[in-house]
Amino acid sequence: MELRLINILLIITFALKVNANNLGYSDSKPLVIGIDQDYPPLEYVDEKGKPSGADVEFSKILMKRMNIPFKFAPNKWGAIANDILGGKVDLGMMVYSPYRKDVTNYSRAVIRLYYQLVTRKGTKRNYGLRDMHNVEVALMASRPVRDTLQKIGARLVIVDDLTKAMKELSAGKYDAVVCYRYQAKYLIGKYKLRNLEQEELTLTPREYCYASSNKKLIDAIDKELDKMEEEGLMDDVYGHVASTFNGIIIPRWVYMAIVAFVIVALLAVILNQMHNTRQLKKALDTARENEEKAKASEEKAHQSEEVARANAEKARENEAIANANAEKARASEAEAQRIADVARRNAKEAEHNAMVASQNEAKAREAAEAARKSEELKDIFLGNMSHSLRTPLNAIIGFSDLLMTMDDSALPPEERANLLQLINKNGLELLHLINELLSLSEVEGDTQLFKREVTDVDYEMGQYASEIRMQLKEGVTLEVVEPIDGLRALVDKKLMRIVTMHLLENAMQHTTEGKITLTYYLKEGGMYVEVKDMGEGLPEKLKQNIFGLLADKNTYTHDENQDNPGLGLSVCKAIIDRCNGKIGARDNTEDGRGTIFWYWTPTEILN
User: Do residues 496 and 551 both lie within one domain?
Assistant: First the structure.
């Protein structure tokens, strides 16, 4: 695919005739390349006053290939950046910034720069973004990194001399320094800062590009960079720092681990499918037994109706006999009256039997309809689960086959990393669906153990909110409204977490702006919990049965406009039902948009 794109770009290049020869540079008017005089190992001025570094060597090769006379103009970075953006120098290299894309032109990425966190040995490791709250961090001015760290509450110190900052970190002035990988490795090695160590930081890598106010020059450079990448010249120049510039080289054991994970996942799916098949067979047998019972009841109803008709006929015959006897023996009027009374009782009994027969017939029809609906639900369940399981499995198998059948050099590291991320994402989705199926089966199968214990509800709800806040989209907030006197109760913490986190995650997925509110309090001898969001609201087709499991053909089915809905709300419903509680959902009329999910369980309150 990449080779096809390169060939298309080459054809367009020849068609438009945009090349270096018509850019207007000559020996008398060479192209001026601005470089940072102190940015090792990429670009700097050495002890002899000569421009040096990987950027300098790469630019020489690029200009020679494009047949453009050039010269270097070293200066401090602040001056060089302004000269590039202001057009005072013709060309320079800098990190791509969306805030500057309207004032200059960027080439395609030459390399990608990855961030690392540098700390002193023996201090707390594995900070990660979540654990950097109130950590004093020194870094060079970078708006995306600064905004990210400020959002999580880190104490930032903006420096203009990274070498000085690394030495001060070694001496104990800061908690950490954020910089690019190659900078950390180079400075630690050069200045022998042996008490420092590096660890990965999950920030988006930055693209290192050529920048110029001359759009035609950047277009010509892009075409030449495509050729150089195809010929492997970028690796020749930047190869000595490949492990610090480019993505992580994936060892063979990672692929083996992925294959093992896929095999285990497939085995889990097969075992779960076998279990579901047994359950469905059992349900089918039950449905058939119900159908047989319904047929037997219907037959019995017909027989009862025949008996009723016979009794009615017999009653009419008795009445006739009574009339005849009365006619023949007026002297036996009392006896005749008795016979008439018997006949009337028989008639009433016949009418009652006819009514019972009619009721039995209606019950038989209901049983037959239940059996038919059970069979229909089985087909819907199998169809939905088959689609939900195949979708991630097809992605996992397809991408893993592609990785195993292609040479390591056939795919760029970025595309290989993207494929691995897709395999991981689909694997997690498959695991999530299997966990939900197992949770639902465990609750519905009467095997779930309810272990109630004394619980600080305020603390648990605060923990759930902290987890969700780290995943909220930008512009969305989460508020917790708790009882004034606090709340301690005798509850099953595991089940309370499953239901509450399901509702919070559901609100988070459907809210792109505004506020999510978690409220809980004592109500009617139990605990009432409410999650209110400002999302798109309940779909009309799901309002009647949002917690149902396949109640009809239009509930929880998959279409092109709906992601895999999962079984989360059905699991919540099953848990709350087992607790003898209530669960529901309604429109958020208070804010004019969104949804309110709530549940109530009878709970022993301790305060």
Answer: yes
d(CA 552, CA 549): 9
Instruction: Yes or no: say if 26 and 69 are a contact pair by the CB < 8 Å rule.
Output: yes
How far apart, in Å, are the Cα atoms of 62 and each of 26, 110, 240, 500, 582? 16, 11, 19, 59, 71
Cis peptide before 412 (omega within 30 of 0): no
User: Residue 45: which H helix or E strand, with range?
Assistant: strand 43-45
Rounded to 10°, the helix 333-405/252-328 angle is 170
DSSP states along 280-346: HHHHHHHHHHHHHHHHHHHHHHHHHHHHHHHHHHHHHHHHHHHHHHHHH-GGGHHHHHHHHHHHHHH
The domain total for the chain is 4
Instruction: Identify whether residues 292 and 337 lie together within a single domain.
Output: yes
For CA atoms 198, 204, 210, 214, the dihedral sign is negative
414, part of any domain? no
163, 290: one domain: no
Ranked by mean pLDDT, the top range of 105-114, 195-204, 268-277, 436-445 is 105-114
Instruction: Tell me if the pTM is above 0.70.
Output: no
**292 and 368 belong to one structural domain:** yes
CA 267, CA 579: separation in Å to the nearest integer? 33
Residue 559 within any structural domain of the chain: yes
Q: Give 301-323 pLDDT, tens digit per residue.
A: 788 788 888 888 888 888 888 78
Which structural domain range is residue 539 located in?
A: 453-605
